[in-house]
Each structure stands twice: as C-alpha cells, then as structure tokens.
Design brief:
Keywords: Calcium, Disulfide bond, Heme, Hydrogen peroxide, Iron, Metal-binding, Oxidoreductase, Peroxidase, Secreted, Signal. The chain has 340 residues and is mainly α. The protein is built from 13 helices and four strands. The relative contact order is 0.16.
C-alpha cells in the first residue's frame, strides 16, 4: 500500500511538472514565501543564568540590512545584482551556478567577464553562516539581495515578494553559457525568453532593468555612424564625442538610460520612445511591431511599472530552480560545492 502511494505521488509530481511545462516552459518547483521562517536559529547569546539562549533570526531582514550597507558604498549595486541574477538564471536555472569558481566555470565565459557582485553575495553568505550555518542557499541570497537593491534604487517603490527555498546547483560550465547578445533581434530575444517560460511582455519589462545598466562604446558605436539609424540627433552628437569612430574610446562607459541612470524607474521606456536607446536591442523594442505597443503602454502608464517589473523579476528568479537534495545543496561557501 505504501509503495502504491509512493508511486502515485511520483506520478502526480511528474504530471504537475508536465502541466507547468506546457503552460510556461519551466517547472518552478516548491518555492514559497517565508520559506526560512523558523529555520534560522542562532545560539550565540547567553541568558541570565549563563545558559545558551536560542533565537529565531529573520533571514530576509538580515539580507536587507547587509544590502543596505553595501548599497551605501556602491549606488550601482542594483545594476550589478540584476545582471548577476539574469546571467545566473538563464544558464542552468537560478541555482547560483554562476558563483562557482574553477577552470571552465560559468564565471570564465566571455559574456560573464564584466559581471560583478560575487563578493557582495559571499559577504552576505558569511554573515548568515555565522548566525545559522548550512541553512540559507547562495541562490536565495542572490534573489533576495537583488530584490532589496532594486528596492533601494527605486526609493522603495519596488519591493516585490520573493519566494525562497532554492538549492545551490552542482554544475557550472562556461560551455553552457548562451545569453542574448546586445545585437540580437527582437524576435530572437522573444524566443530565448519563451524557452525560459517568460512571455513577450515579461521580456520587455525585464529589459527595463537597463534603466540602471551600463555598457561600453564598443558594444554600440557602429550605430552612431550609420545614417539610417534612428537616433536622437543631440544624443548621437554627444555619443560620437565619447565614442570616436576610430574605436579609441571603445572601453568608455555609457549609461543605457540617459534620463535617470541611477534609478529603477520607467525612464528607460521614455528614452527608447524618443529615439534615445543605446543598444540595438533597446531601440528595436520600440521600432519592432512585436513589442512597440508594450513599450508605449509602459511609458504612458508609469504608475504601474514598479509592480509589473517586480512581478517579472520574481518570475525570472523562479526559472529552473532546484529544490530537492538530489538537484542541489546548501553550499557552505558560494564559490565551491561542498566537499570539493
């Protein structure tokens, strides 16, 4: 009888995953809000009689406090962590595989050479390991820290609920890294996002993360010298001065949002709606018939951008998660698997 019930459970789980796959392309696993409630118990204090005192700690509050401290020293932290989250989730799912060190790991892929924020996640991990070792995954820290950094960069207009319960993955290979490039077409980008269970509208919203993003002249300067390229004349002149045609300024940094480059808001969509997009994919979101309507809607209804972006970011953070012991673990150190 027990065996029958076990088989029925396996079949039920398999069927539920098939349903989710048919609906969105991914099976998100058993994440939940408040997953760590009652799980992080510290024993660092002594009571009045000198006995060890146990205390339940608020994991999300600890992460928030650490992110606030980091943000004070690095106002561009939101951009760094948004990129880290995206690059992690698009390869092997949201499992902190991008954090693993080693020859041939994801960190060494060309697309990840300019990714940063690893040290921030590791510092938060060390704090949590001192309080309640072996409880909080690096993958969850990435998701929570990104949420908190975005909240700070949006002046608390955007603080979306984040489900937790992720495990840290075992596999990290540079050869698996296949991220959308800055020159990808809109239709190709839609296809890549759909493979991750993300809709066309969610893709547009997530590219709104470029509102705090930075790039370098070398990634877009060819646009500046094409006569038929749709670009605001004043912006073109300013960028040509910063990005000479001879390539001598190819490493010069440029903000992707020329309006409010340090704030998470709808300004990015205002910019591309007036031919002030920097990357090819940015401006193409407005000119493409596949996404133009969505861009115009977001630019016109800025009051709901925070809510919609937060929802899209939360869904990105649930792509391909690992939630069972055979799929992953709780790493002691984010840069390596346990007992390696």
């Amino acid at each position: 009888m027990e065996m029958c019930r076990g088989k029925s459970l396996v079949i039920a789980v398999a069927l539920s995953c098939l349903v989710l796959l048919s609906l969105g392309g991914q099976c998100y696993g058993q994440l939940q809000q408040g997953f760590y409630r009652g799980k992080c118990i510290s024993n660092n204090d002594l009571d009045f009689f000198g006995r060890t005192s146990f205390k339940e700690e608020d994991v999300e509050k600890i992460v928030e406090q650490e992110v606030s401290r980091e943000f004070f020293n690095d106002p561009k932290l939101a951009a760094a962590l948004l990129r880290l989250l995206f690059h992690d989730c698009f390869v092997e799912g949201c499992d902190a595989s991008i954090l693993l060190d080693g020859t041939g790991s994801e960190k060494e892929a060309g697309a990840n050479q300019s990714v940063r924020g690893y040290d921030v996640i590791e510092r938060i991990k060390k704090v949590l390991e001192r309080i309640c070792p072996g409880v909080v995954s690096c993958a969850d820290i990435i998701a929570l820290a990104t949420r908190d950094a975005v909240a700070l960069a949006s002046r608390e207009k955007l603080r979306s609920p984040v489900k937790t319960g992720r495990k840290d993955g075992f596999v990290s290979l540079a050869s698996n890294v296949d991220l959308p490039s800055s020159t990808i077409s809109v239709s190709q980008s839609i296809d890549k996002f759909k493979l991750k269970g993300l809709s066309e509208t969610e893709m547009v919203l997530l590219l709104g993360a470029h509102t705090v993003g930075m790039t370098h002249c070398g990634f877009f300067q060819d646009r500046l010298y094409r006569a038929d390229e749709p670009m605001d004349a004043d912006l073109r002149r300013a960028l040509q001065a910063r990005c000479p045609q001879d390539g001598s300024g190819s490493n010069n940094p440029v903000a992707l949002d020329q309006g409010t480059p340090m704030a998470v808001d709808k300004s990015y969509f205002d910019q591309i709606s007036t031919k002030r997009g920097i990357l090819q994919i940015d401006q193409d979101l407005f000119t493409s018939g596949l996404t133009n309507k969505t861009v115009i809607e977001i630019a016109a209804k800025g009051f709901d951008f925070a809510v919609r972006f937060g929802q899209a970011m939360a869904k990105l953070g649930e792509v391909g998660v690992k939630t069972t012991e055979d799929q992953g673990e709780i790493r002691t150190t984010c840069g390596r698997v346990n007992f390696s």
